Amino acid sequence: MIVNVNIGMLEKGTNKSQKSLDFESLAEAVYYQNLMGGRINKISGFYSAELEEVNEDTVSRIVKEERSETLDDMVDCEIQDKNNPEMTYNNSFEVRDGRYYKYRSIEEKETQTKYYTLTVGDKKEMTNGFRYIKELVLQRHNFKMYQDYFKLTNSDVKVYSVKTDAFIIDKKDVKKAKKLINFSKDVGGWRTENNKQVSPPSDYYKMKPNEIPTMPVYRNERPPTPDEYDTQSNCENIVGCNPVFIKAKFAGSGKSYIGEYIKKLG
After folding, report:
1. Cα dist. 205→168, 170, 175 in Å?
2. What percent of the chain shows pLDDT beyond 90?
3. Domain-by-domain residue ranges, the chain?
4. What average pLDDT score do residues 143-150 get?
5. What is the pLDDT of residues 154-198, one digit of tens each?
6. Would the pTM count as exceeding 0.85?
7. Which residue among 1, 76, 197, 247 is buried most deeply as judged by most CB within 10 Å?
8. Which of 186, 185, 168 is nearest to 177 (CA)?
9. For 15-35, how does the pLDDT look when each residue is reduced to its tens digit (9 = 90+)?
10. What is the distance of C-alpha 158 from the center of its chain?
C-alpha cells in the first residue's frame, strides 16, 4: 500500500526551499546577492571521476551518518579519526547495495570562462495542524493492514514479516494473494516488488497482547482545620498529608501565606 507516502507529508514540521542562479559576471552575481541574499560559489573548472569502494576500516569507523539534502544516494558521514579516537572528521559517500563508495578524481582541467552560482534558500517552521488528520488516516491504514493480514493467513499464505506498508511472503504465494486482496495502481492498492534483496526476519510475525494495567484509585481527604486562624496548627496538619491542594473561596484568605509559613517549620 502506498498511502503512507501521503500521510508522511501531513506531519512535516519544516519547509525548506532553495534555488540557484548562474552568472558569467561576478558584479551581476553580487548585485542579485544584495537583493535576495544567499551565497556565491565560483565554478572555474571541471574534472572527471570514477567511483572507488571505501575500505572496510573506514566504514567501521563511521559513528554517524545522515542522508544528504542536496544529492540523492549520498550520505554525509562523521568518521572517527584512526590515530586519535576522540577526534572526528566529515566526508560524503555514495551508498549502493549497502556498500560505500567515494569519487576519485582522474583528470582536472581549468576553463577560461569563470561562472558564478548564487544559491538562495530559506527555511520556515510550519504549523503542525495536519498531524491529527494524519493520525486518523494512519489508524484506517493500520486497520486495512490488519484485515488483509488475516485474509492471507486464513488462506494458508504465510506472512513472514509485517512492515509499515508491506508484507513479506513466499514468491509462490503471490498468485494466491492477488485473489485475496486488492492489487492495483491506485492509492491504497497492493503491488509486488520482484528481484529485491530482503533480509529474512529473525522471528516470525506474531501478536503480543497488551496486559491491562492496574489503575490506582485516588481519594481526596480534607485535613481537619479546627481554627482557620491558627496558621502553625494548620501547617502541621498539612505536612503529614502531602500532597495537599490549598484552596479558599476568596482572594486574600492566606493561601500563599500558608506555603511561606511551612518553610519556617523546616
Report:
1. 10, 14, 21
2. 5
3. 16-124, 129-208, 231-264
4. 90
5. 999 988 888 778 888 888 888 899 899 988 888 778 888 776 666
6. no
7. 1
8. 168
9. 788 889 998 888 898 999 898
10. 31
Which residue carries 544528504 as its cell?
Answer: 68
